[in-house]
Amino acid sequence: MLSNLVxxxxxxxxxxxxxxxxxxxxxxxxYDATNTLxxxxxxxxxxxxxxxxxxxxxxxxxxxxxxxxGAGTGFSGGSLPVEGGVVISFERMRKILExxxxxxxxxxxxxVVTWDLQQKAEKLGLFYPPDPSSLKxxxxxGNIAECAGGPRAVKYGVTRDYVLGLEAVLxxxxxxxxxxxxxxxVVGYDLTRLLVCSEGTLGIVTKAVLKLxxxxxxxxxxxxxxxxxxxxxRATSAIIKSRIIPSTLEIMDSVSIKCVEGFAKTGLPDAGAxxxxxVDGHRAAVDAExxxxxxxxxxxxxxxxxxxxxxxxxxxxxxxxxxxSAALYKARPGKINEDIxxxxxxxxxxxxxxxGISERYGVLIASFGHAGDGNIHVNIMHDKETQAEAALSAxxxxxxxxxxxxxxxxxxxxxxxxxxxxxxxxxxxxxxAAMRKIKEAFDPRGILNxxxxxxxxxxxxxxxxxxxx
Length: 469
Fold this sequence. Notes:
Blueprint: H1 4-14, E1 19-20, H2 23-28, E2 36-37, E3 42-44, H3 49-62, E4 66-69, E5 86-89, E6 96-100, E7 105-108, H4 114-123, E8 126-127, H5 140-146, H6 153-156, E9 163-169, E10 175-179, H7 191-195, E11 204-211, E12 213-214, E13 218-226, H8 229-241, E14 248-253, H9 254-264, E15 273-281, H10 283-299, E16 304-307, H11 311-322, H12 324-327, E17 334-341, H13 347-361, E18 364-370, E19 375-382, H14 388-404, H15 423-426, H16 429-442, E20 467-468
Parallel strand pairs: 3-5, 4-5
Antiparallel strand pairs: 1-3, 2-20, 6-7, 7-11, 8-12, 9-10, 9-11, 13-15, 13-16, 14-15, 14-18, 17-19, 18-19
Helix pairs in contact: 1-3, 8-10, 8-13, 13-14
């Protein structure tokens, strides 16, 4: 609980209208997409880096946790206030400060919604590629904290590839600027890359300098249907092997297809699996690549292949793809959503392994995601009352499978709370120890987003008071 001294201090910093202690409002900042509940003691809405700095300096003095929060769309619990404390929400810091059309740079505040930046850039003939499924409501600050990816990562990369520089407030309250606005810059340690994907544990981003690209001239969207997930996986490898790099290459299994069609009614045909493929660039090159993709899919066993006829069909196909995660709740009341990555060439082996895990534990596994870069979202669907333990065991086996295939246990969701217990499956003790030293150097009092990434150390309050929604 916060003392009255702290509460009064917070109100002085951000103004009483921008500081809340009401139970009803605190509840709104207590959960994310993991559907577990950890209630903060206060929520504050700063207007700039100076206010964030003062809050962190007070936190160091008084010893309360501070948790930065974007839109709360994360799947790993990264924004949950597991030890109470103060949530900093960036709803008042939502300005696109600049779009430099000559140098292809945007400067934004952390509360800017990803979709809003994309739309403004496109009106100027420019392109901000990172496109997480939550792009219409997730924020740039949250994307930076988790290094968000999305379907276009296969060709264009992830958020870190577009962050040139940052303004950030360190856990001890100092405001720093990292990186550059230029195409190159190698002065000192790369603090920008260190802060990106640090899950709000090393600093709080208050401004970002982002790289933009010219908007592609043309895009072709295609749908390829297969009788079996293994054929779709083999087609994925064949497309990349043919030296075509699609802008998106998404895969959905039969469970995902059926759930989406029941949920969103977008007209997806019944199939064992599908690939949603896009190629973009100059118009002549795009048409040639689309034809090459068609041939590869048919040679790989596709039972149907079609090119989207118009913008409405493109919109419906992407509506279906982005609805998968929510739609899967129709299959089972419980869902564990993991985002493993394996080398693209080993996706067929992953598919076989997942079938074995599903049979071994008696749980339904639905797979979809970014086949083009090997980032598959494995959803373990289960009955909460009777299969919860089996589902957790299955998740651990999914991680072991990914690692055995030369992959990783997370491609874009991060570690947060949900994967902290599995950290040592992938990282050696020496690497974890080095990371802990970095955290301690940046945050000696441990006040910034505690309980994330690393398993809770002995003697520290555990995140055990969660309520599952």
